[in-house]
Amino acid sequence: MIQIHSDYAGGNIKVISLGEVVRLEQDIRDSYWWFYWNFCVRCDEEREVVFEFMHGEVVGPWGPAYSLDGINWTWLGEQSVMNAKSFVYRFNSDHPEAYFAFSLPYQLHHLEQFYERFQDNSIVRRDTLCLTEKKSDVPLFLIGNANAQEHIFLSSRHHACESTVNYVLEGLLAFLIADHSAFLDRFCIHFVPFVDIDGVENGDQGKGRAPHDHNRDYIDQPIYAVTRAIMRYVRELRPVAGAVY
Ligand SMILES: [Zn+2]
């Protein structure tokens, strides 16, 4: 018997049918067609299961991202790819449960793990930028010299599903913090890891949301509290550099 669920941080799937082949599609929600999906499967039999997606090409060249605990992810590998719409996985009784996703997920619990490594470091400070419409905290990190004259602004997840950039920024920041480089004496980095934090945690596509997504909200009358807050924050900060993902 096969059971599928997605009721966890970042989960997203629609089950079409559970037979010899499991048929699925990504849950588009309020976006136009996009490719994000993330689900957990339990299969108590030792056998191969083919997963076939029914709404466009949504399996990348390395196959799905894959995890046994929903926290630590890696790529399942190109040998798992049948075509751009399907992949195959062999369940074994040691691990009847496995998680699969379009790409390596990065959720709030990943960020908390990252922060734990550096929370006692005096050059890393945590704040809240604002609350979202759903009253979630939007985390803001200040990394470096609190009295710096020069500031850098980084933000990611304007499109909720674009998780890989968080691994890149995590690597960059970990390198700078561990090194406690002269760079961080000179600059203060202001980092908003999840602009659309509700979308990230809900497992939304985020890209192409109706009426428009967070990336398209830098307009005269923004509709999201977080983009209003970023516009205000950056105007006051006057950073020497910024990167928006
Ligand atoms: Zn984007």
UniProtKB/TrEMBL annotation:
Coiled coil: none
UniProt superkingdom: Bacteria
Essential cofactor(s): Zn(2+)
InterPro entries the UniProt entry points to: Cytosolic_carboxypeptidase
PANTHER family in UniProt: CYTOSOLIC CARBOXYPEPTIDASE, CYTOSOLIC CARBOXYPEPTIDASE 1
Protein name: Peptidase M14 carboxypeptidase A domain-containing protein
Organism encoding this protein: Paenibacillus pectinilyticus
